[in-house]
Design goal:
The structure holds two protein chains of two kinds. In chain A, about 25% of the residues lie in helices and about 35% in strands. Chain A is built from 14 helices and 38 strands. Chain A has an eight-stranded mixed β-sheet with strand order 17-16-15-18-19-26-25-24. A five-stranded parallel β-sheet of chain A has the order 5-4-3-6-7. A five-stranded mixed β-sheet of chain A has the order 30-37-36-32-33, with no helix packed on it. Chain A starts with 5 loop residues before the first strand and ends with a helix. By secondary structure, chain B is of the alpha+beta class. Chain B is built from 18 helices and 21 strands. In chain B, the strands form three sheets. In chain B, strands 12, 13, 14, 15, 16, 17, 18 and 19 form an eight-stranded mixed β-sheet that branches. In chain B, strands 3, 5, 6, 9, 10 and 11 form a six-stranded mixed β-sheet that branches. In chain B, a hairpin with a 3-residue loop joins strand 9 and strand 10. The longest helix of chain B has about 40 residues. The chains are: A alpha+beta, B alpha+beta.
C-alpha cells in the first residue's frame, strides 16, 4: 500500500486493460463523429464519461483515510446500545464490526466466517453484547479485550446436574433462574410432576430439586417454567448407572442388634456380607449372606483385598491383635473402606487410635433429634457423648446443626469413617426405613472401596450440547492406540503432549436426543444433545461467563490512527455508466 | 427441365410419399401407443408391463397401418398413375416420362416433351394426397388425452386407485374373511335393592354397582367360530352364540378388572383393553352428633339423655338400633344387662340419609349412682347380605358421690393408697434400718417411722386379704369406724398406740398382754409360734370357710396364717416395737415364699434333650471338636421390576426415533414388562390399564407414525408409575484413576515418611 490518495485494485492487468479501453473509447468517438452532428459535444462527453465509469468499475479505486485505528469493536446480539454509543463517542477511531444478528448498526462489516474472525485476532479491543459463540471464541489467540456484556438473559441461567448417580441415591438438580415476573418452576419425571417451586420475587434466584432416582439408564426429566403468559420446557438428561454390589465384612465380639439390622438392611439391597462373631479366643461364628467367600479366621491383607468395606465397633477394634490391626491399616491404605461404629468413648489400643485419627470433642448430650428428608417427624436417636471436631481433612456425612455425627477421612487410597449414632436399629424396628436408610446409605457408599477404572470418557464442555456445535471429549485409557467412534465413524483422538494416556477429541453431534461415543475397548459414553430452542438463556449466560472470565477490563488506551484505503462504491460508477449510455441511446431520438 | 430432371423429380415424389406414409403410421401408432400406456397405468397395471404392452401395441399398430397403406406399392409407376388421376392437365401422359425416348413413337415423343413442359410448369402444385396433418393432429390429441388421464389419476389422491384398492382389499378381505364386530351392546342390570334402573354402558367406561349383571351382546359382520371375553389377561368367558353372527354373555363382577374381546374365524382377533369398574356397596356410615364418647352425669343431672345420630348409606339403610349395656355394681359383683333400643325418630329406618334421635331414659334403664351405660349404634343396609357397621362405644356414667375415696387415713396423714404395695422384704429392710438408726432419730421420728411401717404392713395385709376373697378395705378384724378415727385424731397418737408402763413388767421381762386400748382383739405374744386356741388362731378370718380364693387349701391356710402374722407385725410396729415385729415379719416372708412356690405350676419340658455330658470330657479344655458355626443365606429379593426398568429405558430411547421399529428381542422385552405390570396390578387391575394398552399396541404394531410418540409417552408414564418408591440405597462408586493419581498419592506418602 502506498500513501497515494487514490489506490486501484484492477480486476485485470492494467497494462493491457488501459490500452483496450482507450482504443474502444477512440473507436466510439470516431463512430459518433461519423454520425449526425446533433448534440455531438454532449455525445462525445457521454462516451467519455461512460468509458471512464467502465474503467473505474474495472480498476476498483479506493481512497486514503486516516481517521480510524486498527482496533475493532465487535458488536454481538443484544449489545448495550447506550454503552456502545458512549464508547464510540469516546473513541471514534475504533472500527466497528458485527457478529451474528446485531443488525441495529447498519453498514458495519459482518464477521461471517472463521477466517474473518481470525484476521481480527489481536485487533479486537472490545466485544459488546452476548459475545461470540464458543467455537468462534476459541479461535482467538489473543483474548485481551474489554467485554461490554448484554443484560442477563431471562430464564434458567445456571444448572448443575448430578453425575455418577445410581438408583436409590438422593440427587440434586441445582441452578439459578433470572425472572421478571412471578414464575413457577416444576420438575417433572416420566410419570408427571414431582416437585415445584414458586418464585414470587423477580431477579436472580437459586433453586434446588432433590430427587430419589428410581432406576438405572438414560432418563429424561423435564424442567418447566410457567409464567402468566408463557410455558417453557427443558429436558434434563440424567445418566443413572446400575448399582454395584459391595462385599462387606463385619466383625463383632458379641452379636448385637445394631450389626444384625445393618446386615439385614444391606443384604436386602444385594450386597454380600460376612459377619464374624467371636465365640472364644480362637473360635468364631460366621454368617454369610449373598456371598460365598471363605471364612476368615485371621484378618490379613490378602483376605481384606476381597472386601470393599469393613464394619466393626471400636470396642472390637481394640480387641484385634497387632497383626490384624496392621493388616487393616495396610488394606485401608490400598483402598479398603473401614467404618467404625463408636460404642465406647476411649480407645486404649494404639492401633485403634491411629486408625481413628479423628479429633473428638466431649458432648454432654447422649441423644440427638434428627429430621430426615422424606419423613414427617423428628427422630430421637442415641449417640456417643462426643462430637467430631471439624477439620479440613474430615469430610462430614451426617450433620445436625453444625454437629458432625458421621464423617470420613482419606487414608491413602482408602477411607476411614466413624458413626457416632447408636441403636439406630430401633428406627428399623419401628418401621421407619426411610430414616434408617438416610443414616447409613450415604455413609456406606462414601466409605466403601471405589471401583477403579483405567478407562474413562468425559465431556469437558458444559451442558447443554447442541446440534452441529463442537463438543470436546477427554479420554483416559491405557490402550496404545485408542479409537473413538461416533455414529459409526472414527472421531480423531489427539494425545496430550505432556500427560500419557490422556486424549482429547472433538465431535459435532449429528442428531438431537441421546448420542453415544464408544472406544474400541467397548467403553461407551452417552450424552444428550438438546434441541436448538432449549436452554437459550443458559447458553447465553455461559457465553457471557466465558467472555467475562477472559476480559481484562476496559483499559483501552487510544491507539494511533492508521491509514487505510476505503473502496469507492462501484454502484456509483455503474449508475454513471448507465446514465451515459442512456443519453447516447436517447440522443438520436431527441 | 430435361427428361432426366423430371424422372428425378418423380423419384423424389415417390420417396417423399413413402416417407409421408411411414410418418403417418408412426404418428398414429405413437399417439395411440401413448394413449394405450396412459390407459394401462390408470388401470393400475405395473409400469414395466404397461411399457412392454405399449411398445408391442405401437409396433403392431404401425405395422398394420403400413400394411393397410400398402407402402410397398409406391413406386414411380404408381406415382405417375396417381398424378394422371389427380391432375387431368397432365393429359394422362405422365407415365411417358418413364419410357425411353428412342422407344417412343413420334407422337409419344411429342407428348412426352409436352408432359415435361407441363410438369416443369406445374411442378410446385403437383402433390400426392396424404393425411399427414390429420395424423399429426391425431397424435397430439392422443398425447393430450394421455396427459389428462395421467394427471387426473394423480391429482385426486389416487381416488381411482383407492377405490380400486379398496375394492381389491374388500375382495382380498372377502377371500380371507377377517371378521369384525359390527355392534356391541353392554347392558347393566343393577341389583334390585339398589333401585337403579337397568342401563346401557359405553364400551370404554363400564362402571357397574356391585352385584350387577353385565350383559354383552355382540354382532359380527360374518360368521365366526367362537368369541371370548378375557379378563385382566387371565380369566376368560366364552360367549354364547344365540344367532348366526350374534353372541351374548351375562356375568357379574366382584372387583375391578380390564377386559378384552377375542374372536376366532380362521385366526384369533383381539380388541383393545377396556376397564370395568365395580362400585362397591359400602357399609353404612354412622355418626353420633351430640354426645362425647365419655359422659359423666351427677345424680342431680337429668336422667334423660338425648341421642342424635346421622346414618348414611350409598343405597339405603334398612335397620338401625342402639345396643345398650347397663353395668351395675363394681368389682366382682358387677352385673351387665343388654338392651336393644330403637330410635324414636324416625319411627322406621329407611333411606340413604337419616337423622335419627331418641331419648335415653337412664332411670327406666335402671341406672343408679355408680352405674354405667355403654352403648353403640348398629345399622344394616338393604343389601341382600346386609353390610353391618357400628359406631364406637359411648359411655354414660352416673357418679356416685357417696362413695368413699379409699385408702385415705386422715389421722395419720398418710397419702392415698399407693398403686403398688411394698413387699414384705422391703418392710423387713426398713424395719431393720429403723432399728439400726434408732439412736440417731428423735423419739417422735422413730415413732412416726414405726407407725408408717405399720401402715405399710396393713396395706400389705389388705392386699393379700383380697386373694382370700375379702373385698372390703378393713378386711379382717374389727373395723375402725369414722367416729373412732375421729376420736383417735383428738388423742395423742402415741398414747393411743402405745402401752402404759403400769405394771411391774415394764421392762418386758416376761410376756404380757397389752391392754386393749386399740382395736385389735387378739392377744399379743412375743412368740407368735405359740399356739393359741384354734379359734383364736383364725379369729381374724371373718369369712366363710368356703370363701372364694385362688389357692388350694394348704395354700389358703398358709395365707391365713400369714395374714394373722401380719396383724401381729403391724401391732408391734404400731406399738413402736419394731424389733419385736421382726420375727413376725420373717415368718410372714417365709410363708409368702412358700405360698408363691406352692402356687407355681410346673410343666414338663419338651424339645431338645441334650445327651448327658461325659465326665471325662468335662473341663479338659479340648476345643478340637468344636466347629465354627457357619450360617449361609441369600436375602436378595428377586427383582420383579427389571423388565419394567429395561422397557422404560427402551421407550425413552425410542422417543427420539420417529420411525422406530422394534426388533424381536425388544418386543419380547415389552411383553415381559407387560406381564410384570399385570402381576403388579392384581389388586387393582385398572391401575395400569393405559400402560397395558400401550404395550399391547407397541407389541402388535397397532399404531401409525403419528401416534407413535404419544403411545410411547403414555406407556412410559404408566411403567414409571408401576415402579415402587425406593428408599435410599448404597452402591459401590466408580473412580477413574490415571496413573498420575496413584503416583501423586505415593509421592505424598514418601514425603510424609520423610
Amino acid at each position: 500500500m502506498t500513501d497515494e490518495f487514490l489506490n486501484f485494485n484492477p480486476l485485470f492487468n492494467i497494462s493491457w486493460l488501459l490500452p483496450i479501453l482507450l482504443l474502444v473509447t477512440v473507436l466510439l468517438i470516431v463512430l459518433e463523429w461519423i454520425k449526425a452532428k446533433r448534440f455531438i459535444i454532449y455525445r462525445l462527453l457521454a462516451i467519455s464519461i461512460a468509458m471512464i465509469s467502465l474503467a473505474m468499475l474495472l480498476f476498483r479505486p479506493s481512497y486514503l483515510t486516516k481517521d480510524k485505528s486498527d482496533q475493532y469493536l465487535v458488536l454481538t446480539p443484544n449489545y448495550p446500545t447506550h454503552v456502545v454509543d458512549s464508547l464510540l463517542q469516546l473513541h471514534p477511531e475504533l472500527m466497528v464490526a458485527s457478529y451474528g444478528d446485531s443488525s441495529k448498526r447498519q453498514s458495519t462489516p459482518q464477521i461471517q466466517t472463521r477466517q474473518q474472525l481470525k484476521d481480527l485476532d489481536g485487533k479486537i479491543a472490545f466485544i459488546a453484547g452476548e459475545g461470540l459463540s464458543k467455537s468462534y471464541f476459541n479461535l482467538l489467540q489473543h483474548k485481551t479485550f474489554g467485554f461490554l456484556p448484554a443484560t442477563k438473559p431471562i430464564g434458567i441461567i445456571e444448572i448443575t446436574l448430578p453425575i455418577n448417580t445410581f438408583p436409590g441415591q438422593w440427587s440434586s438438580i441445582k441452578g439459578r433462574i433470572n425472572i421478571q415476573e412471578p414464575t413457577t418452576l416444576q420438575l417433572i419425571d416420566p410419570a408427571g410432576k414431582i416437585d415445584s417451586i414458586n418464585f414470587n420475587q423477580t431477579g436472580e434466584q437459586d433453586f434446588t430439586f432433590l430427587l430419589l432416582l428410581k432406576q438405572a439408564g438414560n432418563v429424561l426429566y423435564t424442567l418447566q417454567t410457567i409464567t402468566s403468559s408463557t410455558e417453557e420446557k427443558f429436558s434434563i438428561p440424567l445418566k443413572v448407572s446400575e448399582r454395584e454390589k459391595l462385599e462387606i465384612l463385619m466383625l463383632q465380639l458379641a452379636p448385637s442388634f445394631e450389626i444384625r439390622q445393618l446386615k439385614n438392611f444391606l443384604a436386602a439391597q444385594g450386597h454380600g456380607i460376612q459377619i464374624r462373631s467371636q465365640l472364644s479366643k480362637s473360635n468364631f461364628s460366621y454368617e454369610k449372606v449373598n456371598t460365598d467367600k471363605k471364612q476368615i479366621s485371621t484378618i490379613t491383607n490378602d483376605v481384606l483385598k476381597d472386601y470393599d468395606l469393613l464394619i466393626l465397633e471400636n470396642a472390637t477394634l481394640e480387641q484385634l491383635s497387632r497383626i490384624e490391626s496392621e493388616a487393616i491399616t495396610k488394606a485401608t491404605n490400598a483402598g479398603l473402606g473401614v467404618l467404625l461404629l463408636m460404642n465406647q468413648q476411649d480407645n486404649k489400643n494404639k492401633y485403634a487410635k491411629s486408625l481413628m485419627d479423628f479429633s473428638m470433642m466431649k458432648d454432654d448430650r447422649d441423644t440427638v433429634h434428627l429430621w430426615f428428608y422424606g419423613t414427617t417427624k423428628k427422630q430421637i436417636i442415641k449417640k456417643l457423648k462426643q462430637t467430631i471436631e471439624p477439620k479440613q481433612h474430615i469430610i462430614p456425612v451426617l450433620v445436625n446443626a453444625n454437629e458432625i455425627l458421621s464423617a470420613y477421612r482419606y487414608q491413602r487410597f482408602g477411607k476411614v469413617a466413624i458413626q457416632l449414632l447408636n441403636e439406630t436399629y430401633q428406627l428399623r424396628l419401628a418401621g421407619d426405613s426411610t430414616a434408617y436408610a438416610n443414616i447409613w446409605s450415604d455413609l456406606i457408599t462414601l466409605t466403601s472401596r471405589q471401583k477403579i477404572n483405567n478407562t474413562d470418557i468425559t465431556l469437558t464442555d458444559e451442558f447443554p450440547y447442541n446440534l452441529k456445535e463442537s463438543i470436546q471429549f477427554s479420554v483416559i485409557t491405557n490402550e496404545e492406540k485408542p479409537i473413538l467412534y461416533y455414529e459409526g465413524k472414527i472421531a480423531p483422538l489427539m494425545e496430550d503432549v505432556l500427560i500419557d494416556n490422556l486424549w482429547s477429541a472433538i465431535i459435532h453431534p449429528q442428531k438431537t436426543g441421546w448420542n453415544s461415543v464408544q472406544l474400541n475397548d467397548s467403553t461407551q459414553y452417552d450424552f444428550y444433545v438438546s434441541s436448538k430452542e432449549e436452554w437459550s438463556a443458559l447458553k447465553q449466560q455461559q457465553q457471557l461467563n466465558l467472555h467475562q472470565a477472559e476480559t481484562v477490563g476496559l483499559n483501552y488506551s487510544n491507539h494511533e490512527k492508521v491509514s487505510r484505503y476505503n473502496d469507492i462504491p462501484s454502484y456509483l460508477f455503474y449508475l454513471t455508466f448507465l446514465l451515459s449510455m442512456t443519453f447516447l441511446w436517447l440522443a438520436p431520438k431527441l | 427441365m430435361t427428361l432426366e430432371n423430371v424422372r428425378y423429380w418423380l423419384n423424389q415424389l415417390s420417396a417423399r410419399q413413402k416417407l409421408v406414409l411411414l410418418l403417418q403410421s408412426l404418428m398414429k401408432g405413437t399417439g395411440f401407443g401413448v394413449l394405450f400406456f396412459a390407459l394401462t397405468q390408470a388401470s393400475a397395471v405395473s409400469f414395466t408391463l404397461s411399457l412392454v404392452l405399449t411398445i408391442v401395441f405401437t409396433i403392431m399398430f404401425v405395422v398394420v397401418s403400413l400394411l393397410l397403406s400398402k407402402i410397398w406399392v409406391i413406386n414411380n409407376n404408381f406415382v405417375s398413375r396417381s398424378l394422371n388421376q389427380l391432375y387431368p392437365q397432365l393429359q394422362n401422359s405422365t407415365d411417358l416420362i418413364l419410357c425411353e425416348t428412342q422407344n417412343l413413337s413420334t407422337l409419344q415423343q411429342i407428348q412426352q416433351f409436352r408432359v415435361i413442359e407441363l410438369i416443369a410448369t406445374h411442378r410446385d402444385s403437383l402433390k400426392l394426397p396424404n393425411d399427414l396433418l390429420k395424423s399429426a393432429g391425431l397424435f397430439f390429441l392422443c398425447l393430450l388425452s394421455a396427459f389428462l388421464l395421467m394427471r387426473n389419476q394423480n391429482s385426486h389422491g389416487n381416488d381411482f386407485i383407492t377405490r380400486l384398492e379398496e375394492n381389491n382389499a374388500d375382495q382380498v378381505n372377502a377371500s380371507f374373511t377377517i371378521p369384525t364386530i359390527e355392534t356391541i351392546k353392554i347392558n347393566i342390570t343393577p341389583p334390585a335393592y339398589t333401585q337403579i334402573k337397568p342401563y346401557s354402558s359405553p364400551l370404554n367406561n363400564v362402571s357397574v354397582p356391585e352385584g350387577s349383571i353385565i350383559n354383552f351382546w355382540l354382532r359380527f359382520n360374518q360368521s365366526i367360530e367362537s368369541a371370548s371375553l378375557i379378563f385382566s389377561g387371565k380369566d376368560s368367558l366364552h360367549l354364547k352364540s344365540i344367532e348366526n353372527q350374534v353372541f351374548e354373555i351375562s356375568f357379574t363382577m366382584k372387583q375391578d378388572a380390564y377386559f378384552q374381546l377375542a374372536w376366532k374365524s380362521k385366526s384369533w382377533q383381539q380388541s383393545d383393553l377396556y376397564p370395568i369398574r365395580v362400585v362397591k356397596d359400602n357399609s353404612p356410615v354412622l355418626n353420633i352428633t351430640n354426645l362425647q364418647q365419655f359422659t359423666e352425669l351427677t345424680w342431680e343431672d337429668s336422667p334423660q339423655v338425648m341421642l342424635r345420630a346421622n346414618l348414611q348409606d350409598d343405597y339405603s339403610i334398612s335397620k338401625a338400633q342402639i345396643i345398650a349395656t347397663v353395668s351395675k355394681g363394681s368389682g366382682e359383683s358387677v352385673k351387665f344387662r343388654e338392651e336393644k333400643i330403637n330410635f324414636t325418630s324416625p319411627t322406621s329406618i329407611h333411606g340413604k340419609n337419616i337423622a335419627a334421635e331418641t331419648l335415653l331414659n337412664l332411670k327406666k334403664l335402671g341406672l343408679e349412682p355408680g352405674d354405667e351405660l355403654y352403648f353403640y349404634i348398629e345399622a344394616f343396609d338393604n343389601k341382600t347380605t346386609p353390610n353391618r357397621s357400628r359406631t364406637d362405644t359411648y359411655f354414660i356414667a352416673v357418679q356416685d358421690t357417696s362413695e368413699m375415696i379409699t385408702s385415705t387415713e386422715e389421722g395419720l396423714g398418710v397419702d392415698l393408697m399407693p398403686e403398688y404395695f411394698r413387699s414384705q422384704r422391703q418392710i423387713i429392710i426398713d424395719t431393720k434400718k429403723l432399728i439400726r438408726n434408732k439412736k440417731g432419730l428423735s423419739v417422735a421420728d422413730f415413732k412416726t417411722t414405726s407407725n408408717e411401717l405399720g401402715y405399710d404392713q396393713k396395706v400389705l395385709r389388705l392386699r393379700y386379704s383380697e386373694f382370700m376373697g375379702e373385698e372390703f378395705v378393713s378386711g379382717i378384724g374389727p373395723q375402725v369406724s369414722q367416729e373412732d378415727i375421729g376420736a383417735i385424731e383428738d388423742q395423742d397418737v402415741t398414747k393411743e398406740f402405745g402401752h402404759v408402763h403400769d405394771s411391774e413388767n415394764e421392762h418386758n421381762l416376761v410376756e404380757h398382754k397389752h391392754e386393749e386400748e386399740h382395736n385389735h382383739k387378739h392377744e399379743e405374744t412375743n412368740d407368735p409360734d405359740k399356739k393359741l386356741s384354734p379359734l383364736e388362731e383364725f379369729v381374724h378370718a371373718h369369712d366363710d370357710a368356703e370363701e372364694a380364693t385362688f389357692y388350694i387349701q394348704s395354700v389358703k391356710a398358709k395365707l391365713r396364717a400369714a395374714l394373722t402374722l401380719m396383724w401381729d407385725a403391724e401391732l408391734q410396729l404400731r406399738l413402736f416395737e419394731p424389733a419385736k415385729s421382726l420375727p413376725y415379719q420373717y415368718k410372714i416372708l417365709k410363708l409368702l415364699k412358700e405360698i408363691s412356690n406352692d402356687s407355681r405350676i410346673y410343666v414338663h419340658r419338651t424339645g431338645f434333650d441334650p445327651p448327658p455330658i461325659k465326665e471325662d470330657k468335662r473341663y479338659i479344655a479340648d476345643l478340637s471338636e468344636v466347629i465354627n458355626p457357619t450360617k449361609q443365606s441369600n436375602s436378595l429379593e428377586q427383582d420383579k421390576y427389571k423388565a419394567i426398568q429395561q422397557a422404560i429405558t427402551l421407550l425413552q430411547a425410542s422417543k427420539s426415533i420417529a420411525t422406530k421399529t422394534f426388533t424381536t428381542k425388544e418386543i419380547q422385552l415389552l411383553q415381559v414388562a407387560g406381564n410384570q405390570m399385570a402381576a403388579l396390578s392384581k389388586d387393582d387391575p385398572i391401575q395400569f390399564l393405559e400402560g397395558l394398552k400401550g404395550l399391547s399396541k407397541l407389541v402388535n404394531g397397532n399404531y401409525t407414525k403419528d401416534e407413535f410418540i404419544a403411545i410411547v409417552s403414555a406407556t412410559e408414564k404408566a411403567l414409571w408409575e408401576a415402579l415402587p418408591n425406593s428408599i435410599q440405597k448404597s452402591s459401590q462408586k466408580q473412580l477413574t484413576q490415571h496413573s498420575l493419581d496413584s503416583d501423586f498419592i505415593k509421592a505424598l506418602e514418601y514425603q510424609e515418611n520423610d
